[in-house]
Amino acid sequence: MKYKSTRNSGLSVTAAQAIAQGISSEGGLFVPESLPKITAEDLKALAGKSYVERAEFVLSKFLTDFSAEELSNCVRSAYTAEKFGSDDIAQIAHLYDGTYMLELWHGPTCAFKDMALQLLPHLLTVSAGKTAQGKEIVILVATSGDTGKAALEGFKDVPGTKILVFYPEDGVSHMQKRQMTTQEGGNVGVCAIKGNFDDAQNGVKAIFTSKEMVEKLAEKNRMFSSANSINWGRLVPQIVYYISAYCELMAAGEISCGDPINVVVPTGNFGNILAAYYAKGMGLPVNKFICASNANKVLTDFINTGVYDKNREFHTTISPSMDILISSNLERLLYALSGEDDGIISQWFTQLKTEGKYTVSEEVKAKLQAEFVGGYCDDEATKATIKAVFDKYSYLCDTHTAVAVKVYEDYKAKTGDTTKALIASTASPYKFTGAVLEALCGEAPDMDDFAQVQKLGEISGLPIPAALAQLKEKPIRFTGSIEAGEMPETVLSMLD
Ligand SMILES: *Cc1c(COP(=O)(O)O)cnc(C)c1O
User: pLDDT tens across 230-280, in order?
Assistant: First the structure.
């Protein structure tokens, strides 16, 4: 299996090259040249297997330059009961009849990013061994809150790597900030920027494609890579859990092999929902992809109109990991929907950069609307949903997952579609304790973050993740805060 770039279809690199490099040199994203297929027989066989075995099966189809032993070592080091609380790495909870919550947050940092970022360092180390000729890999991360911590935890003290994370100073929850600023490890750096996630992500992308920066690193035998979902190594582990969830539902007798399901995803950078789209491309029976946004509803508008327009007010919401106006992975979807037209993709994404806006063709829009439904809800509706879902079903959602539940319920009310649905539950409610308590109690009690966590535990009965409770004792290590424009020199000084 070879990989090409969304802005250069003529390129052909191995999976190891795509993962080690992170982003293509002309700014495009790496995509597989074709999607491997899974058959009904494969699904039936996988239904009787463990998460680790399913992951080995799916990854072996994409990472064909990895040996079976290399893949097995990567997967078995990443997905352990010790790190995920049980061998059931991606647990499914029943919300109500025919509606299932795919809980992707039982990993070490309590958000779905662990599903990919526990594996990525292993994939990257093997990839670098094959392609990077002994260079030290410098991972640059822009985070809207959860990727940063998950990447730090995944890469901490991994030999041959350094990791630097940039987060929006006022754009993350207290718990998210605390998780990052107390990060342990000898190869890690964390810095706040005065700006939002898009500023951080643009800064990181500009550094990757800056000849000067790349040369400066090369002088010291270093190279950049990415742990954001622009890296193929982030997406491929996410395909696994959609296939695994389908197999779980089959094994539990909730669906029969071949039954279509709807997939509902609270979306920001479009990585998670794109992984579900790729799973469908491989043969997983999916009916609709329901793309849920918060008040930053650029994707809802795009799906409804075919016009992507980021020239709008940026909202800071209680679901900060979705506070994004430039959804990077949409580029991969549009590449597929346009019939892999690298010219038109380069044109649209250049327009996005220069004018903040592009309009897709009628044909692409029709294909998009045939499979994707967009919806959004604001903070008030998010909080009302947390409360209603807890009161009715005794299920506690985090703020992001609540957006998905609300958008799904609106969709059902509007269409009457009764297809069974899998809703991605993307974070532990304890990461957003303040907002969740406010939803349940009307206002958040006036106490410190950790007392609030205790309080939420008493109200909900949901076990408190040890990793969050322990943060209270950890010293703050990183207090830096810079303008987005200062990112290049900050990167160089953090590396010295
Ligand atoms: C990152 C994140 C999202 C958005 O996922 P994308 O892959 O960026 O679309 C949703 N919810 C939570 C909790 C997240 O951390």
Answer: 999 999 999 999 999 999 999 999 999 999 999 999 999 999 999 999 999
Task: Indicate whether 255 belongs to any domain.
Answer: yes
Q: What is the CATH number of the domain that holds 264?
A: 3.40.50.1100
Task: Tell me, yes or no, whether 360 lies in a domain.
Answer: yes
* Model pTM score: 0.96
The best mutation among 426, 428, 430 to test binding of ligand 1, ranked by most ligand atoms within 8 Å of the C-beta, falls on 426
Which atom of ligand 1 is nearest to 431's Cα?
Answer: 13
Q: What are phi and psi of 123, to 5 degrees?
A: -60, -40
Residue 427 within any structural domain of the chain:
yes
DSSP 166-194: EEETTSS-HHHHHHHHT---TTEEEEEEE
Q: What is the DSSP letter of 102?
A: E
Catalytic residue, chosen from 113, 149, 205, 383, is 113
Q: Which domain holds residue 100?
A: 86-112+233-431
Q: Is 113 a catalytic residue?
A: yes
Domain count, the chain: 1
Residue 72: which H helix or E strand, with range? helix 68-78
In a domain? residue 368: yes
Cα of 329 to ligand 1 centre, how many Å? Answer: 12
**Which of 439, 441, 408 lies closest to 423, judged by CA?**
408
